[in-house]
Amino acid sequence: MWRMSNCILQKCYTAILLVLPFLWKESNSQFLPEYKIQVPRKIAVQAGLCVHIPCTFTTPSVYPLSRNAKGIWYKEGKARTTFFPFYGGFEDTQGTREKLFLTGEVWKGNCSLRINDANPEDSGYYVFRFDDTVAQHSFIEDKPYVYVIELMDIPEISPVKDFVAGEKVTLTCTSPGRCSGRDPQITWEGNTSGRIMQSYTVNHEDGTRTYHSNITFIPSVEDDQSSLTCKVTYVSSGISRKSILLKVEDKSPSDTPPSDCRSMDSKLIAGIVAGNIIFLLLISLGLYYFLKRYMEKRLLGNGQNGQNEHEETEPTYQYLSINLIYLSTDIICQYPNGYSIQILNPSVTVEEGLCVTVPCGFVADYTTTFEDSKGLWMIKANNSIAASNKAVTRVKDNFHMTGDPDKGDCTLTITDARRDDIGEYYFRFEKSDGSPVKNSYNRHPISVTVTDLTQLPEISIPRKLLSGQEVTLTCSPPVNCSGTPPIFQWTKSNQNGIWKNSSTVIFTPSPNDHNQSITCEVTFPTVKKSTQKTVILDVHYPPSIKIEGDLNGKKRMMKENMAVLEGDLLTLSCSTDSNPAAHITWMKGEDNVPSNMTDQGLEIHLSNITTDNADSVYYCLAWNEYKRISKSVTITVQYPPRNLEVIISSSQGRKLEANPSLIINEGESLTVNCTVDGNPSAAVSWIKGEVDVASNNLIGRGSVMSLVNITSSEADIYRCLAWNRHGVIEKRIQFKIIQGTTSYCYCILYIEVI
């Protein structure tokens, strides 16, 4: 008795656990104090930047969180409440990185949210909800409000200091904030001619990034008091700027050697200069005394005229000594004063078939501004022309002078790199025809190395593909070049042969494309080299349901109507195909059915089936963020014929009881009705006699037998036979005639069940 009571209580407790989450599904923390959430009530974020919202929550002890728990953030609208679910992450309409992202581990009670690329449309209330196996809850009362305010932070430029004309300088602009959304665009405004700009991103351990841009240049006197501006443009909203005023100090060439000289070791330069100066001073001093003695002797012989020659001669040898000092300085500095060159990377490595740009700036005759000048890149080995901005005969068709020498820009671009491009190259400048301003910067060559092609192409693909929604895939070569166009070839794992032959592919993904691979192969025809990249498609689609059955240990194909026998053991398994994975549950009417998850799917077990299960409808419900669907199975319980009864009625209006003694008047007519229960419905026939040896023994099909004007000849055994596919049952009636002194038939009715 105790064990039965305990079982009943346990079932009731389980039923309560299953029902309570649905009764409390949309309740709030005011009525369920055990559901608690800690989250800031008001959060401000600047347009274009990002914000991290810390959040934790707890559930009642009877509903501990499982690893299957999912978190959902809902954004409330103004006119009415509309919900946009943000599960693990959400991709905005522009498409390359997450805009809103659930950063916390929900099963640990962490519901933290990050909003990237904030714009005014993101302002509003946000509600957190979790879904777990047996519990769901929305924290409607405890919701944060996000304010998106105007962008106020400005970028930083460093270092800020006074500059020296002719000395290379690199400035760095850092965008405000540390985010993880889409990269902002950083540009420089002002005099950017011939200046080298390079952007880069720094990734931090917390998943955020900072964005930077460097500008490298050699300031001139003309740059003094000019402004330089760093402009940061955010994709979603907002532009931020910062400007600085350049202060450039002009140093005399005699005090400051050209920048190329300062690339040498400073101690070595100082030693050489000091040694030369001392050496020249000694020579000048000796020459001075020698000439002085010589002039004194001449004065003694010539009188007043000698004094006049001395006065003219002294400036002559002073001028000679000064020129000797300048001559010595020019030799040390390699180039004449006022000439220098700055190459960002003199050692260039490029892969076969690809391209590379070598940023380069130069100064000639103390300036970087010219008219109709000529720039040439020369092969150092034989002094032949590789590239020029003018129409000249050159030996390299893949070397291009992409810089403008009129602006002090000597940038070189190499396309379709091949092995015979390996070597050293130097820049030569000629101001204009007939001008003496010209120089070969051959002591500062660049070294070009060509290696094997190892870089992979880039495939631009949305992080989330939606089934049935057209999408464009773009394949880009490892480096965007202006040389010979590459050849593109696409293949797809679930399609034979070549899929497409273009850089872009437009197609409509289906569920069959999920987890399939696509490959883009890029071939560079000039060097006959190829490289390829493969990506796996992540196609999102709503769930589809498949229900399978196991009847008494044998697999069965399930239909909408399932016929079983009393006492059978039936297992129904519901599996889904969807991305992301769908929530699944079994229901009977409005009630949840206890189930358990296996490798086959979500299973329910119906054991020792009875007629109480007859015509029961079981629903498998599945849903994800795209759709909610269901599929049903109706259980029909079948059984062999049973509860067979015989009812006898007389033509004389008497209702005769089936008892051992039954008096029937001679000439009386009887109607005998045979009733039976069975599923499917049983077929019923009456048979006269003990053995069915001939078809004429069959009195009739149906449950009713009529005997008219009974006489002694009717004495025999009458059988009511009922059957369906699951069994057969019969009942017998036997009439016996006992002779008597009166004119009636005395019959004994008995029933035998086989």
Q: What this model shows, in words?
A:
With 754 residues, the protein is mainly β. The protein has seven domains: 21-149, Sandwich (Immunoglobulin-like); 156-249, Immunoglobulin-like (Sandwich); 259-333; 340-451, Immunoglobulins (Immunoglobulin-like), CATH 2.60.40; 458-537, Immunoglobulins (Immunoglobulin-like); 540-626, Immunoglobulins (Immunoglobulin-like, Sandwich); 638-747, Sandwich (Immunoglobulin-like). The strands form 15 sheets. Strands 41, 43, 44, 47, 48, 49, 51 and 54 form an eight-stranded mixed β-sheet that branches. Strands 32, 39, 40, 42, 45 and 46 form a six-stranded mixed β-sheet that branches. Strands 2, 5, 9, 10 and 11 form a five-stranded mixed β-sheet that branches. Helix 3 (266-302) packs antiparallel against helix 4. The chain is elongated.
Strand and helix map with partners:
Layout: H1 2-23, E1 36-38, E2 42-46, E3 51-53, E4 56-58, E5 70-75, E6 89-91, E7 98-102, E8 113-115, E9 124-131, E10 136-138, E11 145-149, E12 156-158, E13 163-164, E14 169-174, E15 185-190, E16 196-203, E17 209-217, E18 227-233, E19 239-245, E20 248-249, H2 259-262, H3 266-302, H4 304-333, E21 340-343, E22 347-351, E23 356-358, E24 360-363, E25 374-379, E26 385-388, E27 399-401, E28 412-414, E29 423-430, E30 438-451, E31 458-460, E32 465-466, E33 471-476, E34 487-492, E35 495-500, E36 504-507, E37 517-524, E38 529-536, E39 539-551, E40 554-556, E41 561-565, E42 570-579, E43 583-588, E44 591-592, E45 596-598, E46 601-606, E47 616-623, E48 628-650, E49 655-656, E50 662-664, E51 670-679, E52 683-688, E53 698-701, E54 704-707, E55 717-724, E56 727-734, E57 745-747
Parallel strand pairs: 2-11, 13-20, 22-30, 32-39, 41-48
Antiparallel strand pairs: 1-4, 3-8, 5-9, 6-7, 7-8, 9-10, 9-11, 12-14, 14-17, 15-18, 16-17, 18-19, 21-24, 23-28, 25-26, 25-29, 27-28, 29-30, 31-33, 33-36, 34-35, 34-37, 37-38, 39-40, 39-42, 42-46, 43-44, 43-47, 45-46, 47-48, 48-49, 48-51, 50-57, 51-54, 52-53, 52-55, 55-56
Helix pairs in contact: 3-4
